[in-house]
Amino acid sequence: MDGDDGNMKSFDLFDTLIGRRCGTAGRLFEELGRRLGETDFPDRRRRAERLLQDQRVEYTLEAIYDQEPLRGLDWRSEWNLELENTFRIEEQARELRADDIIVSDMYLSEGQLHELMRAAGIEFKGKIYVSCYGKHTGGIWKRVKREHPGLALHIGDNLENDVRKPKTQGIRTRAAVTGLNEVEKGYEAIHADLAWWVRWGRVTGRGNPAPTLIGLQNQFNLPFLWAASHLLAGYAKRTGMKRLLFMSRDGQMWLEMFKKLHPEVEAEYLFVSRECLRGKSESYFEYLNSRLDGRALLVDMAASGGSLKAALPKLKVKPHLWTAMFLPEPFKADVSGLRLAYAVTNVELSFNNAALERLNYATHWHVADVVGGQPVTDQEGEYDMAKVQAYHAFARGMIERAPGPGSLNEAGFLKIARMALRGIQAQREFLIREFPNHDLYEKRRKGAGFQWGQGQRLAVVGTAAGYDWGQIEPWLKSLRMTGYSGEVHLLGYKLNALTLKSLKAAGVVVHAGKLTGQVVVERFRDLAGLCRTFGRDTWIVFTDVGDLAFQRHPWEFLQDVGADIDFVAASEGVRFEGNAWTRENLRASFPEWEDAMRGQFVYNAGSIAGRAGALADLAEEVFRLCGTKPGASKHDQLVLNYLLQTEHRGRTLFVDVNGEWCFSGAASMFARSEADRAAFTGIMPKVENGLCVGADGSVPVMFHHWTRDQGVERMVRKRLEKK
């Protein structure tokens, strides 16, 4: 006691260090009554304890059961239920030290309280001050203060007994907030068991409140899956559906919940994706048809029905689909020929289903096909798998103790589902930050020429800021005239609605970005994110748009590039010190690099190619280094050149200005000064019939800066207008 070091704390026990899974003492009595088959037990239990309280004597659990209302019942039934219900409340339990003390108003003995703590996973051998009224009357605090003058703080959940009354003895206090929060109170008004289940997940420390991914699972997603499971089971029973097929990937966690709640219903996981349903894989449809029959119900988290409709000609039976959320907008899918039912719509809730998808990712990647009954997956890296595995692990622990439906009806389940979905929608921006690649992958999946995996060799990415359709169309048309039919992406900034509509109609996937600085710099930030949605070895051709025209299919050149090469860059035919603009840009932005870049050729930043994985890393580094010189202007090309010619020289194919990758004419053919033209080291090409042609008759894949001369521009446009 004299050894108190001034850092000793005292703790309340119930609802501070440990809790009851069922929630409260009253709910514990109700559960015991159900087990005993005695509906009046809770009232009798309260009357028995009140008889002792009225006498103002200290009493025990055994003494309560000696009172007339409970006589003949064994007190051990309640004690065993207490042991079964106890759990550790993490926030306070992790503060408890061996030399701290516990102060509790309780009818259990100090030994019983120690046993409860051990059952909750708390090893504590210190002093527990236990009495029936000491905290309530305030009398215990005088003793505690006298025996522990160094007591620094008391922590407890009761604002009167644990906060106000200790303060009267000069003891500093802190409230432990462990009751139902506002979300849980909303659930309690509909289904109390659900509310206390959610609270249990939260205060154990695993379900910290939103915004965290685990918190969103605890507070909203798992309650939604719980309600949706009961709605689904009711529908299946009414319609006589005997086998439920939970569609990947959103259905993985939901299937676990459903099986726990309704083990009597046959349910299994079905490997599927929009691409599988809209594809032509014979092995996939052999698998799908083997699972479908007249009593099989397809189950989806959120669906428009469009992909299933597209698969109809390949299905042996008319499919029956139940989706938790139907998406009539913006898809407006024709669902004739489908038997479709649902719980809610995205329209009634103004809900973006991507938020729900982010909370229900599977622990496997996107399903590309099924061969021999086994899934073939792709799009590895679409999301942070470690985060997804963590929230699945949390969900499994919660699902194991999920409550039953009680007497709740369909209207009640719907009310809970809508409450939970509104909570998820409110955290949409947080979920976007946690899983930023989701929208990029969705755009790619919906884009023209979309393909994944080993079959994808090439994608083309451009940048346009403030352009109208007339400025972009020549670039796209020239690319398509080469025979290229693959994916085309555009990092778009400040594009008007008409331009966006035209790009969509042309099959271009637009990635709208927000500019806070120079587009030539910030495009590299967005390029890095986009590249990470491709297979690492996919070639990405990254170009300017307004003044670049394609002349040949890019693959004609890239197919011969060695496996040890990650980047392709085309020279402009001048050295850094030989061109006025590049020389002054170097001195103004990175003068410390002047020696390193002296004698080096300038390689154009608007016509590069790179393997997606390596290009993502390079683009991130370009953006980062540019950011170290916030006062500099248009220094992206300099930074790119420095990195390629120093850190990545052995992995870069440096193509001569007269090579067949790209001719960039800004520093030569279209140079403004005689001095700049004189610094050109290559052989000047010529423009014939709108094509840039080398002195040896070769035609480079790209012609850059063609809009800088009116005569050349007229010839190029005339060529593009021919087809």
Structure description:
With 723 residues, the protein is an alpha/beta fold. Helix content is 43%, strand content 18%. Strands 15, 16, 17, 18, 20, 21, 22 and 23 form an eight-stranded mixed β-sheet that branches. Strands 5-4-1-6-7 form a five-stranded parallel β-sheet, with helices on both faces. Strands 9-8-10-11-12 form a five-stranded parallel β-sheet. Strand 4, helix 6 and strand 5 form a beta-alpha-beta unit. Helix 12 packs across helix 19 (385-399), helix 13 (251-261) runs parallel beside helix 19 (385-399) and helix 29 (612-627) packs across helix 30 (636-645). The longest helix has 27 residues, at 213-239. The protein is elongated and about 110 Å long.
Give the helix proportion (percent range). 40-55%
Radius of gyration from the CA trace? 35 Å
What is the general shape?
elongated
Low-confidence stretches: 448-455
- The DSSP helix count reads 32
For the largest beta-sheet, the strand count, sense and barrel status come to: 8 strands, mixed
Strand content: 15-25%
Number of β-strand runs: 27
Terminal-residue CA separation: 95 Å
- Helix/strand/pairing class, anyone? alpha/beta
Mean pLDDT: 93
List keywords for this structure.
43% helix; five-stranded parallel β-sheet; eight-stranded mixed β-sheet; alpha/beta; single chain; 723 residues; elongated
Write the layout of secondary structure elements.
Elements (H helix, E strand, L loop, with lengths): L8 E3 L6 E3 L4 H12 L4 H14 L6 H5 L9 H11 E3 L1 H4 L7 E5 L4 H10 L8 E4 L2 H4 L1 H9 L5 E4 L2 H9 L5 E3 L6 H7 L3 H12 L9 H27 L3 E5 L3 H11 L4 E5 L3 H5 L3 H10 L4 E8 L2 H6 L8 E7 L12 E7 H4 L3 H6 L7 E6 L2 E5 L6 H15 L10 H17 L1 H7 L3 H9 L11 E8 L3 H13 L6 E6 L3 H9 L3 E4 L6 H13 L7 E5 L4 E3 L4 H4 L8 E9 L4 H10 L4 H4 L3 E3 L3 E5 H16 L8 H10 L6 E4 L6 E3 L9 H5 L7 E3 L2 E3 L8 E3 L5 H12 L2
Parallel strand pairs: 1-4, 1-6, 4-5, 6-7, 8-9, 8-10, 10-11, 11-12, 15-16, 15-18, 16-17, 20-23, 24-27
Antiparallel strand pairs: 2-3, 13-14, 18-22, 19-27, 20-21, 20-22, 25-26
